[in-house]
Amino acid sequence: MHNESSLWNRSKLQLKQSAKRLSLDPFLTKILLEMDRVIEVSLPLKMDDGSTKIFTGYRIQHNNIRGPYKGGLRYHSQVSMDEIEALAFWMTMKNAVIDVPLGGAKGGIQVDPKKLSEKELKKLTEIFIQKLIGVIGPYSDIPAPDVNTNPKIMGWILDEFKVQNAKLKNKYKEGELKAVVTGKPIEKGGSEGRTEATGLGGSYVLKEIMKNLKKDPGNITVAVAGFGNVGKYVAQFLQKMGFKIVALSDSKGGIYIESGIPDIKRIQKCKEEKGLVNGCYCIGSVCDLNNKKRLGGVDILVNDIWELPVDVLVPAALENVITKKNAPKIKAKIILEMANGPTTKEADEILEKRGVLVVPDILANTGGVLVSYFEWYQNLHREKWSKDKVIKSLQEKMENAVDNVFAFKDKYKVSLREGAYMLALSRIEKAWKKEN
User: Fold this and answer.
1) Catalytic residue among 12, 16, 46, 106
2) 284 and 177 in one domain?
3) Which of 118, 141, 221, 224 has the fewest beta carbons closer than 10 A?
4) Statement to judge: residues 351 and 435 lie in one domain
5) Which residues contact 300 (CB under 8 A, 6 or more apart)?
6) Are residue 257 and residue 340 in the same domain, yes or no?
7) What is the pTM assigned to this prediction?
8) Which residues constitute the domain of residue 82?
9) Cα distance between residue 253 and residue 245, in whole Å
């Protein structure tokens, strides 16, 4: 695999660079360049038709210096070690950037969940948890949803964890049992505000950056690439905050309206009905191509979005989409990384030379991680927060994180990405020195 596309190699380079600039203890740097523990399990499953299939499951724990391992589980046929190691490492960084007492982990099963019946998927999840029973727990490692996993699957994890613990006679209290997994359904101890947390957190980050740069959101145009759970919410909330959303795209193309897209929620509905953003020119409740001319709309191809004349670009879907090929053509002055690892290292260097402000993923997309922490906290303390309290706490923590990252950026005269890594590493070192 070419280094540039290996997410974990790229992360290690970034880590070494920031550690050097910070004069981090070399022993700690070495610790952070490795995973604490890599778990690979075989998952034999009896299928509905009586046949047997063997699946492979992973749980990779990067580091727990600041608290229990925390991170999502993805069910995807392309689940790879390299990707999960990078994601586990980023979780350690994200939790340190937003200052919550958790470490980083990631995991998943190599499976295409669309090819399994619900019964098979539930059984597979239960077998996975049986194999991880000595690994996960409210004070050791707390999974969460990720690609192709959802509150329902987290509910299954909780139920199976309870069954296994009863067998092992572990003395967990009810709240502690619930705290083994986050992203659960509300009725099983999930937190209010979890669904939109990543998108909302990202919009608070951009708003706070505008405050730092003394810019008015009303004059700022934004293009959002990726219109899934994260993209639709970030677009919606930014619009509510007064930003002008001018372009949206998904994997099939998108739309560009220079004067601003009137109503993001309406486009969401149109996409749900049609399966794509392309052609969703909406005036009131009517969405069709006849409105295109009236709105001054333009259809765009997937890769067109990177070159639009906008102030802010928001990659909100896949990794490695901003590359050395398209980086020189980007007109935006700010990139808000709502996806994990959307900018390659080479592209990063090009953008920095061109004076583009890249708001790194380990700061921009931590809203979901943060509300996961709130959920864990609520479970352990037998509390139930209102949605208002969750959102108020989210806003406060995200704004603080932005200000702290900017402080590092200014003190060391580095990029925002470097500032975020340095902030995270300095917090990890502080906790590590306390222990040693």
Assistant:
1) 106
2) no
3) 118
4) yes
5) 247, 249, 253, 254, 255, 256, 308
6) yes
7) 0.94
8) 35-187
9) 16
